[in-house]
## 1
Amino acid sequence: MLLHGFEVALTPTNLLFCLLGVLLGQMVGIVPGIGPAAAISLLLPLTFGGDPIASTIMFAGIYYGALYGGTITSVLLSIPGESSSVMTAIDGHQLARQGRAGSALGIAAIGSFIAGVIGTIGLAVAAPLLAQGALAFGPPEYFALVVLGLTSLALVGDSLIKGLIMGVFGLCLATIGTDPQMGNTRFIFGQLWMLDGVEFLVLAVAIFGVGEVLSSAENGVPPAKIEGTLRSAWPTYADWIASRWAILRGSVLGFFIGVLPGAGATIASFLSYALEKRVSKHPEKFGHGAIEAVAGPESANNASSAGAMVPMFALGIPGSNTTAIMLGALVMFGLRPGPQLFEQSPDLVWGIIASMFIGNAILLVLNIPLAGLSVLLLRARYALLYPIILAICIAGVYSSSNSVDDLFLLVAFGILGYFMRRYDYPAAPLVLGLVLEPLFENALRQSMTISQGSALIFFVRPISATLLLLTAVAVIWMSVSSYLRARSRRRGS
Amino acid sequence: MHQGERIFAVFLGVFGLIWIWKSTELPYLDYYAPGSGFLPLWLGVILVALVALFLWINRGAQTLDALPSNPRRLWSIAGGLALTVALIEPLGFSVPVTAYLLFLLRRVEATSWRTSILVSLGTSIVLFCVFRLWLSVPLPRGPWGF
């Protein structure tokens, strides 16, 4: 069946649409404020009456192309355009400041390619089976998954308590706006523009982009010129050795997380980061430019895009905003996504799956040379670069909501980001708390409705109980080990 | 713990207290299920508890002051950003952003007039072309039409 898919995907029209999709996706990922879901929505009317296979191949290309595009701004400018690139911004930008942006981007491209291939193989081999497994994840399991995810992210920082504070603070910020279930307004303090709440992009760009610039500005001398040579633009053999298992682990983890509807690339990338730090022999390098901290999350977020196709094709359930719009496109083309799609439209399903192999290869070919080109950008003096970064932050945030009010939030959160850096509060739990709160709160409320108000539901279902047990063990283990470390330090001194 | 860090932690704790206070104005339960105020209330309680624990753990600890600071540069950038944002609605996108970049490059970073003008104008024009012309984002226009 897959061979037949390659026959479909390799026709000149479909190849052209695949290339177009990947290119568009990459551009969309680079520009903050325009996500793949928006890009597909804008293009949807243009595909009316067109070939459904070619159009869907293009949409899939936009989807995984955008995931890689977000990597470029994360590494070079510390501006994650997508929530799935937040983890990349942490170590990727540190590598860039050490003159190793090319290594980070190159490893990300290679990792994304390998992950895309692994994810696509998983999609081709196990889609119907996995889709059934994903149905075992109900609201209590999602609740427990978010608890585990946020806690593991807090655990990987230098201070557990600061990580937890930031995670809870992020969850608090996400409750601003309209309650999605009851329609009440919460914490808007009479300001109608706050009804939509705090957007991810505003917070991420402020904390990572503006906060980084302010933090650098406070130091007497800014990070000045980032030294980069053409030799340092490519990943070295040592980079590959350090990253290969991270890529493999990230790919497998990302694919399985991607299969869960609603979980997606964000959870995949930060669980991969947490996993890599846990298994690393040099966890102290994380946050200061560890190449495997780029390789793992990048592979995970790319593999998750293939995983997200599993419930879409096999069950007709969208796994993310982007796949929801793609699902709408399939319906618009007169197709009915679900278990019958594999039998009724094999050309479409296998054609798209095969095109994902090709699209990932195109991304690799495009991005390895681009990794070299990035050196040119980083040769600019930081004094010239940071005003441009700030201008991009303003334009990107405005474009996401067309609201000047969000720009005031950009300033406020930028100053918050500066103080967080000054006092070593980790940014990732804050941003991811904001992103995951809707899933977290909905899962909590749905679970409690199912159980008629009993919290026991989280402990009697095997998957959620296991996830919560893992969370408890991780927190206790981390607390005890940090207490013992502190005690031995005190005795030593 | 540095004094500033203590103040920052207290700020987060006060934020948690505000969340507790305001969430009591929202319904706690909706029949069996948690209402709009349930999660914010508990998040506020957890945040305050974590901040209190953090302050208690670090009550005697003293760390060195942060890196040598350059408050003038910092507040020039932050204040300029706030002023630019405030001027975008009445004056449009391009003029305040160009002026801000010119201020940063010429005044804060002391680069040459030629470089400052080239970079600030070039950046504004590229951003205008990408967002306004290519992506059709309706960037605010000033009285002069751009």
## 2
Amino acid sequence: MSDPRSETTRQARARRGRNLAIAVALFAFVAVVFVVTLLKLSGHVLAFAPAQ
Amino acid sequence: MTNRTASTAAVASSAPEAARWQDYFQLLKPRVMSLVVFTAVTGLVCAPAPAGRSPLNPGLAAVALLCIAVGAGAAGAFNMWYEADIDALMRRTRHRPLPLGRVQPSDALALSVLLGLFSTMLLGLAANWLAAALLAFTIAFYALVYTVWLKRRTAQNIVIGGLAGALPPLVGWTAASGSLALAPLILVAIIFLWTPPHFWALSLVTREDYARAGVPMLPVVSGEAATRRRILAYALVMAPTGLAPAFMGLGGWPYLVIAAAAGAGFVALAARLAGASSAEIAAKRAKGLFAFSIAYLFLLFAALLIEHLAGVAPLTAPR
């Protein structure tokens, strides 16, 4: 008799998909915050740059 | 435990299949998100640069639009969490992830809260905090005022609740300009007046579904004939309002012609629906009006967007 707690192939595939989606979402969030920070900082740097 | 939470729990307890990432994405109502993004990008592109400052960086503008889309998704996920019990009773919605038991209600709520918080905070950082506050208001209005308070209580649910779907152009405008103005409010007014006839046309076709679920949509409460007359009344107010951007410094001649033609088409279809002689004919005409209403909104906002990108001069000075 099989263990009722064991995963089926379909459940395992769904879990891998969810894990991957969470990883992608986290990476995308970090990347977006990084890009926003760079763009905001560069705007301020330009704003305070001495006139030529 | 209330009836609503009891039935939601009953629906979810079966949990027949493991959740896929696509199920969580479906919770965000991607089709609604696409409409929100489209109207928000129009507001963002039409907005002037902040006084004495350079226009919003294109990268930051893209992040702002992403935040608005995710914020709309957060509101959609909350709506699906709260309405899982009635979704299970309606043909149109019973295949959603929560009624099917694929996603646990607590997961849907957590996703909604997290996305709502992150999208609002990130919009504040990327654009400005006025736009973030407006986005937070929009999410809260859809989740609490429309979904929790109005949807199951009054036939005016879609009339008042429609404000949430109407605000994205204002959020986009504010993200780009950093301030409020009269011009984007007319875009809000167009979507606000468009929402009731759009949803009432759909609810004429799905009336039995709403009745079974106990949702007091107008056709269920007041009957089909009264709903058809109300649709015509809203169309008669909405069509002239659709012309207003041309006189408020937003639209040029091409926009005016498109808005006039599309508005006349909307009114003509609404009048044909109001005069339908049988339920079968009315159902067919309601489907036609529903499809046309989507095209109407798309045409108006696409015209504004293309005019601004192409540099077409507005008919009047911006207000």
## 3
Amino acid sequence: MRAILRRYLPALVLVILVVAVQITLSATRQEFYMTQLTMAAYYTMVALGLCLLMGYAGQVSLGHAGFFAIGGYSSALIAGLGAAAAVSIPAAVLVTAAAALLVGIPVLRLRGHYLAMATLAFGIIVLRVLQGTPFFGGADGLSNVGAYPLFAGLAISGRRALRVQNYYIAWSLVTIGLLLAINLVSSRVGRALRAINGNEDAASAMGVNVARYKLATFVLSAIYAGVGGACLVHFSAGIGPGEAAVMKSVRYVALVAAGGMGSLSGTLAVSAALTFLSLRGVFGLYDDAVFGGILLVIMLFAPHGLPGMLAGVRARRSARRSAS
Amino acid sequence: MIDPHLEVRGLHHWFGGLHVIDDVSFQCRAGIVKAIIGPNGAGKTTLFNLIAGALAPASGRILFDGRRIEGIPPHRVAARGISRTFQATRLFTGMSVLENVMVGRHPRMRGGFLAGMLGPAVTAGSERRARGYCMEILEDLGLAALAPKEAHSLPFGRQRVVEIARSLAADPRLLLLDEPACGLNPTETEEMAVLITRIRDRGVTVLIVEHDMSLVMGISDEVLALGAGRRIADGTPREVQSDPDVIAMYLGDDRA
């Protein structure tokens, strides 16, 4: 029982915080903050998925903004078809998964720097295709994307009247994403992923189908990104090619690194906080520089992330490791 | 026993222009300890890698219980019931001793990504059984108290035993041990000999690459001697020890 409580504690804390923040904001008539909090939730989906890929399976991706954009553009375009509008989000997520499968099969043969460069190239291709193709709206992107009706009168929409509702929709998705990820990493598959991260040859000798597990994790992390993109496009009523920018991908990597690399709750906390501040414009013109700087500082001084640095737990562990 | 457990026939392998495994054939019956000896560069570890699927041979056959396994990937070799350890221990960093051993149980467990994400409602039973099985192994090897410790924090000798525990978790029929006594002190080597004999007595066939001759001769039922990728001798420890080619290989050959 205690083990179960400990496992799901981050999700419980998340739910409590989400509710507490809403109550506080509504009571103090500062509901406008919820717009950026909702957007932050959808970007956090990307970070969560990337955390599975980088933190657990140990595979770098510098192209995850590309999957976010594919999810967003696909849902916007499918919603524009009229008849298929009702399934635009699930269809867009399928498109994203298919794209990840196609990219992942050749690219995941590469390791380390080479994988990073190949995924970077993928991100650049997505960005340039979106920018250069009139069908995708070129540099303007797509706008006037309609609301996405859910069940029981709920809808993903940026309408002011639905602000609280959408805040809860977005953070419910994050909570579900977190729960599924927590389950996965503490399962047979999660152990296998950490084994791959530790030593591919040994994992393979222990019966882990390394290539398949890497690919499945890559696709799964792209699905997280695709869900984020597909939902945000309906909330924001549009999307631009900038969502696929290389600096966006770097930003997701920075969030996972700052979250402690292999820490879902750390990634979630850091992503929610920093993305919210960024969307509020706190970093001003230096927005990208801030995230680049975070990545640099984390790599240099806190390779186990901000939570690890604060708690000191992981730091002590690494000291032990380097001592042995 | 009519059919050999493991049979290697006319195996060849090259590293570039180097003929590292040159027409090697041998057999191994079930339930014995068979050692592979030879000087550095004789091809012992390469032979292990070929059997375990880490390398695909240039030509030749490897039969395990009558089925061909040469050239199939390591994870499928593992699923067939062959498990291995590495010359330099390769435990998984950041994972506890128990978690390491549970990775070894991977091929005997079920449940992919979907089951994993659905969580305990689906996987609790198999997780509990796997944990129980792996804890039994750790208890049996006297490591139960170390189960929650991070594997890499253990002393080297213990890590070796954990690695063996991890390979035993898959319930293998054939265990490949690559220099299990390398770097161990005399007491630990003694314990390792006892452990290997116990594993054999549980019915697991053990193929072992080892430099420590007293260990090899003490626990092996058969010995295969390799030199420069070729089979030099194959037989009981006594036969191989008195084989003139083996003696020449180790002590230098005046005739050459």
## 4
Amino acid sequence: METRRQIFHILIGLTTIAFLFLFGRTITIVSIFITILLGLLVINQLYLGRKIHLIQWFISNFERKNVDFPGWGSACYATGVLLLCCFLADINEIAASILIIALGDGLATIIGKMGKISILYNKNKKIEGSAAFFIGSLTGYLFIGPLIIPAAAISMIVESMPINIDDNISLPITLIIFFLVI
Amino acid sequence: MDIITEVAFSINNQLLTDISLLIHNEIIFVGLLIAAVLLGERRPKKIMKIISVMVFAVIIGIIIKMLIITERPCAGMELLYCPEDPSFPSLHALAAFSLMIAFLNKKSFILYMLFALFIVFTRLVLAVHGFVDIAASLAIAMIAYYITDRIWVRYYGD
């Protein structure tokens, strides 16, 4: 279930990057903005007890259990990507950041599940997962060159920390601060 | 100026411009927000939570405005109402979206969504904000609600 969820997570990220380069930043922002609003309408209907078969299927197959509300994971992901697109003007920086969130975070979960060595400051995360996060994130070299190394390292540290904030929110904020400071 | 702001700004309707200018006034806008909160929620604790979300979102917005200086689309157009402070993000949109998200589990959510969309539309009509400012406000409002909700549940329960 979790592996399937992460593969979907990675695919959505890669699709967003392709969309970004095909249609540009503004159309991507408009599309994500509309998607979030439609998503909130769907979440509202689910809250009110309406059964939407396609959405129910999606949630049962791709959503984590014990989330704040139905569709929470997807809402966080879309919010994080929208945040990146709005705060960063360079589409290469946006693409590299989405790759870190999608591929890095996705691989960290898939590999981390099979890991054996816990991180000193967070027993719930594995060193193998963090290594996979860092290596996966390095593919962002295609977009921003050597700058990906510090970006991936900082993101890896934030992802492995025991903070009670969704990775899809904490990672975009970290990457926005990183790119704005750089 | 992006294409969406350009289209909204090109709408030549005096009534719409007048309404937009009314909402542009902070005192009237805050009054509208308070009325909208009181219309949708009667429980004092929930009212406090919604107001906390909006205040927190606006504080985040003000901090971002101080850090990221962007020019307003209306700058240089010699429009009397054009504010001089940075454009990014829209504080009006932040407050309206925070209010909308606070009603996510209610039947009235759709009305609050329409209210928020109308507010952001008036910002584009006046060209005081670009579409990116508005979109960023939606994302910031979601995060502000998420953080406030976490803190609220921790200290005051659900």
